[in-house]
Specification:
- The chain has 166 residues and is an all-alpha fold.
- The chain is built from 7 helices and no strands.
- The N and C termini lie far apart (107 Å).
Length: 166
């Protein structure tokens, strides 16, 4: 296999990060197989080829990391569902600040999605879902406490009535 066909094979079958490493290994293997005299005469040419291939590999791998990623549509649906559940649990009455924070995070995340900042939007949507779930849980807890207080007051009034009747 020649150096050129090996690099084409790497370019087709490998990711950008392994492409640069593979090119470097292929270059060294290729140089070792050449005669020393040929090596000296071709060294400048091969170094520039290696340098170009290395820079290309690095640029491709960095470019891959900088992509915006996938749209967080499922996270958006999850956060909106959590908001609806919190509203249904009367979080607007018992935890309005936490519910408002969750709604603001969803709105901010939608803005980030429009600007294709998906990673930041995903983070905000996860926070919004947790905030909405917490607001709903706190609202349920507050309603349960009120129910317990009402039951306790009813029990107390029944006790008083029983004591008066005796």
């Amino acid at each position: 296999m020649t150096f050129r066909s090996f690099t084409v094979h790497l370019a087709i079958h490998k990711s950008p990060s392994t492409l640069a490493a593979g090119l470097f290994r292929a270059y060294n293997t290729f140089l070792q197989s050449l005669h020393i005299a040929e090596r000296r005469s071709c060294m400048i040419k091969h170094k520039s080829m290696l340098y170009t291939a290395g820079i290309t590999g690095i640029a491709l791998s960095i470019g891959g990391c900088a992509s915006p990623g996938e749209r967080p549509d499922s996270d958006l649906q999850s956060a909106e569902a959590s908001l609806q559940q919190a509203v249904a649990a009367d979080a607007r009455e018992y935890e309005p600040v936490l519910l408002n924070n969750a709604q603001n995070k969803v709105a901010d995340a939608k803005s980030l999605i429009e600007r294709e900042k998906y990673t930041e939007a995903e983070r905000l949507l996860e926070q919004a879902a947790v905030d909405a779930q917490l607001a709903g849980a706190r609202a349920d807890t507050a309603k349960a406490r009120q129910a317990v207080e009402e039951i306790n007051s009813n029990i107390e009034s029944l006790r008083k009535q029983m004591n008066q009747d005796q």
